[in-house]
Amino acid sequence: MKKSFVTGSIKAIAAVAALTLLASCSSSSDSAAKVKACLALDTGGVDDKSFNASAWAGAQAAEAAGAEVKYLAATSDADYAPNIKKLVDEGCNIVIGVGFLINGAIVEAAKANPDTKFAIVDQDGKDHGPAGDQYPGAVIDNLQGIEFATNQAAFQAGYLAAGYSKTGKVATYGGLNIPPVSIFMDGFARGVAYYNTVKGKKVVVLGWDVAKKDGTFVGGFSDQAKALQISKNFEQQGADVIFPVAGGLGAATANQSMTGGKSVTIWVDSDGFVQAPQFASVLLTSVVKGVGTSVTAAIQSVIDGTFSATNYLGTLENQGTFLAPYHDLESTVDAALAAEVEQLGADITSGKVAVS
Amino acid sequence: MNKFKKYIEETSKSIALPLLAFFLAILSGGLLIAFSDPKIYKLWKSPLEFLGTGFASAGHAYLALIQGSIFDGNLTSKNFLLGFYPLSETFVVAAPLILTGLSVTLAFRAGLFNIGAQGQFIFGAIGASYVGFHYNLPPVIHALAAILGAIVLAGLWGGLVGFLKARTGAHEVIVTIMLNYISVYFLLWLLSTQTFLRKGRQDPIAPPVNENARLPKLFGMDYRINLGIFIALGVAYLIHILLSRTTWGFQFRSVGANTLAAKTAGMSVPFVMTSVMVICGALAGLGGAVQVMGSEYALTAGVAGSFGFDAITVALLGRAKPLGTVLAALLFGALRAGGLTMQANTTTPIDIVLVIQALVVLFIAAPAMVRAIFKLKNVKSGTDMAAKGWNG
């Protein structure tokens, strides 16, 4: 009885193995000259509703232009290098690293595989030497850095917030004091200052000091309780527009806006009206970072044969960053203010107004 | 000859359970893979196609798992030996896992449950990284110094647990879990300080480890496999000797088997507990050193991955024996390395691999269930581990 069960299962296993061997031999010969674009994601996973999700959406948008796209997610930092190697071995024409932590592995892979194109989101994509301390680094011919001038859209948001505020106080806070975060806060604060100069007002910004380059930070991107506390404190100090720059922690602030009813929230990275519709009633606008747009552009450049190591800079002009529509709160925004904000965007692009 | 036969019999009895547990885990994992493929839900009406599709997607996934952990014919186009690249990756992942696994194994044998390998790994990584990037020493000496830094730091961190247990009776499970949290946040804080911040970067990554402090690669630049795997195997042998051939090891086992008897026999229980935890810490710390010096070359916030937690599984699967731990770590290394390929070649999410690992533990933790399923008698269910529950 027992014996027959064992031999039976061995036969079954052998049969399955034989079947799959046959199947795998027959199914790998239909790749034409399509450009294969591959994403190496970080540990956030493809459905993080933020960074990785935007990048993957951008890659899928490039599918329409004739690219074959795929992604690999990582479970820990140790997976980055093997994942990238796998994508290179598989014959990906361009490998895009999503997230600053992947930078090291991408730079190494780019140097080792000159025939494959690479891009890295949120880093300059330069070789900073063996000790990582040579600035500015050397250009790597097959690696494109993707960076964003998010301070342009944040500047608009600051101007908007200053004009929108009834209390004359607006606030911002960040996850960590790192450049991809502080650039938003700096732009926001300068936008408020610009409003004050133009209008002769004295709107106060809480949470960021332009001169000291420091301000209010949660200390990470996952502590909802602390983000909520910061938001409450801002409200108590009289701020009625709050701009959290801490990824998903914006939900804590938007929650406070909804329950407290004393403030509105400006969402960050993606259009909050779409990504977090439950907060639609308190979202004034969103400062969008076009990770998806940049990924689409990088893949498109490979399809067109125009890829270069010159960095992609997301600006208002190329829609790499922009202010989202006001959606549900449109009726509360003064039409004249809305027009000024739009004009401000054009002035930033033309260089008439400096954002930093 | 008779002795040899007896040995084989004994061994086959004691490995039967882990093997069967693994088989069950693979089987249920296969079901999960099959049902995670959305195609299959459209085939309810034709049972044959339904089964075929299910078998095919599970088979594809497991084939990719093997391709990603042992040999991949697709990589042989330039050089046949490159086909073994996946095997080398298995060793790369296994090396730190062997060391953290040994840390848990050794603690088990002395009656302690070391949940703290994760924290000890982090401290080892910190020690190796700091010595590795801050000093400029000649080759070999620099690597040895970095390893020493890791062992000392992690040894002290582990020893703290043994000391607290021996002196105050604080339960090592609670202490190690809490120390894990402290380690993680200490690392995050450390990576924000000027000393550990890489120039020009604001994100949590330390400067790269100097060339001289890196572990040499074994088969050239095409493979990531490095000396770490031999360090791990050597250390595993040393632990085997320690446990089976030395007085010190006998003391460890005695305290593990019966604290009171050991005390009556004149052994110093506090000394044994502290010293065993120092070694456990050093072992896990060495794992951290191998990771930083062998494959990652830089300290990051996520450097420890889940090496310290997988170590518990590895030690359980290895039945708290050095050889078993090595084999279990190699298996887990293969699962991790192969999991990446499984994700790349099929649509199976990498999380399935983690589920299979969890199932292995589940089945091992329930020997009665495995025995019932396979209608087994006479299979040794006890392990050599002596860790006890709350009253130990």
Strand-residue proportion of chain B: under 5%
Biggest interface and residues each:
A-B, 39 and 49 residues
Shape annotation of chain A: elongated
Strand order of the largest sheet of chain A: 2-1-3-4-7-15
The total number of structural domains of chain A is 2
Helix vs. strand class of chain A:
alpha/beta
Biggest sheet overview of chain A: 6 strands, parallel
Main beta sheet of chain B: none
CATH class of the largest domain in chain A: Alpha Beta
Low-confidence stretches of chain A: 1-32
N- to C-terminal separation of chain A? 80 Å
Residue share in β-strands of chain A: 15-25%
What integer value in Å does the Rg of chain B equal?
22 Å
The pLDDT mean of chain A sits at: 88
Low-confidence segments of chain B: none
- CATH superfamily placement of the largest domain in chain A: Response regulator
Cα distance spanning the termini of chain B: 40 Å
Number of DSSP helices of chain A? Answer: 11
Average pLDDT level of chain B: 89
Oligomeric state of the chains in view? heterodimer
Helicity of chain B, as a percent range: 55-70%
Keywords (chain B): Cell membrane, Membrane, Transmembrane, Transmembrane helix
GO molecular function (chain B): transmembrane transporter activity
Membrane topology (chain B): Multi-pass membrane protein
InterPro entries (chain B): ABC_transp_permease
Structure, described:
The complex is a heterodimer of chains A (356) and B (392). Chain A has helices spanning 2-26, 51-63, 80-89, 103-112, 150-164, 179-199, 224-236, 250-260, 272-275, 291-304, 335-350, and strands at 35-40, 67-72, 94-98, 117-121, 126-127, 138-139, 143-148, 169-174, 204-206, 208-209, 214-215, 241-245, 264-269, 283-289, 312-314, 321-323. With 356 residues, chain A is α/β, with parallel strands linked by helices. Chain A folds into two domains: 35-148, Rossmann fold; 150-289 and 326-350, Rossmann fold. In chain A, helix 5 (150-164) packs across helix 6 and helix 7 (224-236) crosses helix 8 (250-260). Chain A starts with a helix and ends in a 6-residue tail after the last helix. Chain B has two domains: 1-67 and 349-380, no CATH class; 93-329, no CATH class. Chain B is built from 14 helices and no strands. Chain B has helices at 2-35, 47-67, 85-109, 117-134, 141-168, 172-190, 228-245, 247-257, 259-264, 269-296, 307-317, 322-345, 351-365, 367-374. Chain B is globular. Classes of the chains: A alpha/beta (356), B mainly alpha (392). The interface between A and B is large, with 39 and 49 residues. Chain B: InterPro entries: ABC_transp_permease. Chain B: Its main location: membrane. Chain B: It is a multi-pass membrane protein.
